[in-house]
Amino acid sequence: MSILNSYFSRNNTIIENSFTNTGRNPVMELYFGSNQYSFAPYSFSRFIFNLDLNLLQEKIASGEISLDCTSFSSMTHTLKMRNTSSFDEALLNTTTSAGSQRATSFDLVLLRIPNVSGDTGSPQTWDEGVGYDFSNMLKTQNNYLGTFTNNTFFDTDTYSDRPSNYYQRTTIENWSYPGIYDNKDSITGLTGCNYSALTVVAEQHFEFGNEDIEFDMSGEINSILDGTLTGVTGWIIAYKPQFENITGLTNTYSVGFFTRHTQTFYEPYLETNYDDLIQDDRNNFAEKKVNKLYLYVYNDAGELALLNSNPTVDIEDPSGNIIFTGLTTCLKTRGVYEVTVPAITGYTTPCLFTDKWNGVVLDGVNLGSIENTFVLKSQNTIGIVGSYSKDPSLFGFDFYGIKQSEKILDTDVRKVGVVIKKAYSSQEVLQKVSAQYRVYVMEGTTEVLVQNWTNINRTPNEYYFIFNTQDKIPNEYFIDIKVNSSGQVDTYKKQLKFQIVNSK
Predict the structure, then answer these.
(1) What would be the CATH architecture of the domain defined by 395-501?
(2) pTM of the shown model
(3) 331 contacts 274 by C-beta, under 8 angstroms
(4) Residue 118 — pLDDT band, cuts 50, 70, 90?
(5) Is 151 in a helix, a strand, or coil?
(6) Where are the domains of the chain?
(7) How far is CA 109 from CA 10, 355, 464, in A?
(8) Domain 282-382 top-level CATH class
């Protein structure tokens, strides 16, 4: 599995009965309870955002992210936002400098912004705005359909009311319903504005109030990517109506998360996990088990390239007999085609087989059949069944594709080769081991995970993984390697260090 991060294209916190815009604030504060920010006795806030999916869609269109061997259902998407209270346990159940209580034991929902007059209407496009402050609002509205009223309650303070806000989505366009939807499901005469009519994408319970947001958006995003869902202009994060509608509270209860304008590493993002793992069995093709083979296609420029269509594969035994014909292939990643070969039995091992890839057409040129070979080996030469004991090994690593302490532009895509060898040896390179890598940055002495343990690709010639800097925040990065040997799992810390720098 690999990951790709997509970031927000815009975001804003809207406040009940307020024209204040907070689109540029580095923190979004979701609150409910006693009102500090507008003129009603009780109030709440909601967070709206949209995602930039262009890079993800480009990778899918180019075949770099391929769903040919799997399906959209295997691709997962998780919205991740870092809680501003997650760093210090002392912040739990305390009062903030603004006088609000840290919220605990609550539920947040992720909602799709509805179209005008419900899903049958036109999309409600909106602008982020240029505001910053949460407090000191000068304007309110007497009622949902009434007129604007000027107030001088905080006449010495300044704020921005540039849309979007609770009432407006642009300078000249209002939301179809103030606040986007009605949390009381009251009869308003408008359609598509009731909470019960909205699409609830995900829910999350927060027991302590310092948990990070992790909303599963897999179904939602996959529907956008495959074209079945169109016209989405963003999503809403809010308390469930049961919390927004609480009355009689003497305190304001709030929770904060970093927005896209944070100056920290904790910018919110959508994490996409997809299967591009290559585990080529050509050098270790075992009898009596299913194996995988791959065809690697390069153009004249030495770049991995797409064929006009997927080839088929015939498997020929040492006597020239075709034992499997017309095996279907799939595109694993750009320029790499995978075939699953059924178990082969009844042969004296080792013996040489031929895999013929038929119908290979590159850039309209028919290349005919491409022949490769593999050696069918006894299972006993690849895996041991029975009584066996071996001391675990220690390993060393060399890397190519990224140099130690190298500075890399945030527009690069690097193929990182990992040479796995016996420790303290420069010659004994291992052909088959189980190895993984993970990526993180350091915030002081704290490791901030960027990519969790991921299997390293294995081909007949190398171990490697693709590291995409296009979706990474400029920072200093570290890579750990983990190897499983004889039942012992060893982690090798900070094997590779490099820095991603802003190309601008």
Answers:
(1) Single Sheet (2.20)
(2) 0.88
(3) no
(4) low
(5) coil
(6) 8-274, 282-382, 395-501
(7) 19, 52, 40
(8) mainly beta
